[in-house]
Write a structure and sequence with these properties.
This protein is of the alpha/beta class and 381 residues long. 38% of the residues lie in helices and 20% in strands. Strand 2 (20-21) and strand 3 form a beta hairpin. The longest helix is centred in the first third of the chain and has 25 residues, at 72-96.
């Protein structure tokens, strides 16, 4: 059994279905028990950050919108109503345990754009210094499908890595990772520890288990890749019981994801954690070897360019087999990247008409995530 007590900064994500009952609204007894858990961890010296879903689900209940699919403006209105109720409930529950809280609403750009990322980090850091529990949620009143996280699992992973948390806890309506979705496959086996998220582990993910939730096991594993790459351990466990964090402490079922032994830090953790790359560069086998040895990506090694990106955007680097092996900040706009893909450095100026950078992505702006892509590709095949 592993203990939460050894962790100094813990991010806890709560799914909508845990907080909100379709008929009755907010589950206040459950929230009170979780607040007591947060208080116990804080008393032990840990910083605790909460990423709380539930605004739309709660607003839907308050407004009597039922189960039907909502239009975008209806979802945003439900979020506006639900967010006030949700923030007040968190403030009240934590205050009963002697804790102050602060609400932080973020949009996708607040973690994907470097300047706003640093601003968000400074605000949350100050709340923690002031011993206030940050309660964080996506700003669903203004987010649209094109500019949203889409789930709070990945948002929680982004927050955890941004704030240097050493543990991310995803409280869900399932008690961990199984070899297959247990609701569909009775023979599915529980996995207590994941050493590394491989393609085989990813293949075990199913779809969302609740209509109140936008996330599923797939998004939890996406969150796990972001978190563990930055050196943050992760837990997936059931939040349906009272005092779910202390249930972990008691040794009840949970899947533990070990952090990377060689985590990326600081500036590079921001690059590695980008949720959606602006484009993709498929490279040849020679470039794969060069990247694995710590070199920059040169245009000569790029075989295919896709996406509409601008200089400075984050792009994914794919192996010849199509597996993502790295991410980095590209030095060229997409149109110029297409023109110089496959060219030697000495040929670039003649094509572009100006003296340009020799690297498509400089090694200082690049993070390799898949250390043995060729071996993993062969294992999959």
């Amino acid at each position: 059994m592993q203990s939460l007590k050894k962790y100094r900064r813990i991010t806890v994500k709560i799914g909508s279905a845990l907080l909100v009952d379709r008929a009755a609204g907010l589950k206040r007894e459950w929230l009170a028990s979780l607040a007591e858990d947060v208080s116990a961890l804080a008393a032990g010296g840990a910083d605790v950050l909460v990423v709380s879903s539930g605004a739309i689900a709660l607003g839907r209940t308050i407004l009597g919108l039922g189960k039907r699919a909502l239009k975008l403006e209806e979802s945003q209105a439900a979020a506006a109503v639900g967010q006030i109720e949700l923030a007040g409930a968190w403030s009240e529950a934590l205050a009963r345990c002697g804790l102050r809280s602060g609400q932080v609403l973020v949009t996708l750009g607040d973690t994907e754009e470097r300047r706003r990322y640093l601003n968000a980090r400074a605000t949350i850091s100050t709340l923690l210094k002031m011993k206030a529990v940050p309660v964080i949620n996506e700003n669903d009143t203004v987010a649209t499908s094109e500019i949203r996280y889409g789930d709070n699992d990945r948002l929680a992973a982004r927050v955890a890595t941004m704030m240097g948390a050493d543990l991310l806890v995803l409280l869900s309506d399932i008690d961990g990772l199984y070899t297959a979705p247990p609701a569909l496959d009775p023979s599915a086996k529980f996995i207590p520890v994941v050493e590394r998220i491989t393609p085989e582990i990813e293949a075990m993910a199913g779809a969302a288990a609740s209509e109140l939730s936008r996330g599923g096991m797939r998004t939890k594993l996406d969150a796990g890749k972001i978190a563990t790459a930055a050196g943050t351990a992760m837990i997936i466990t059931s939040g349906t019981r009272l005092s779910p964090l202390m249930a972990i402490e008691r040794g009840e079922r949970a899947t533990w994801f070990r952090p990377s032994a060689n985590p990326v830090k600081g500036y590079k953790s921001w690059i590695a954690g980008q949720l959606e790359p602006a484009g993709r560069l498929t490279v040849d086998a020679g470039a794969v070897g060069a990247l694995l040895s710590g070199k920059s990506l040169l245009p000569a090694g790029v075989k295919l360019v896709s996406g509409n990106f601008s200089r400075g955007d984050t792009v994914a680097i794919l192996t010849p087999e199509g597996h993502e092996m790295a991410r980095g900040l590209v030095a060229y706009d997409a149109a110029d990247a297409v023109r110089i893909a496959g060219l030697k450095t000495a040929e670039i100026e003649a094509v572009l008409g100006y003296e340009a950078r020799s690297a498509m992505i400089h090694r200082d702006d690049l993070v390799v995530s898949l250390r043995e892509p060729m071996e993993e590709a062969r294992a999959e095949g």
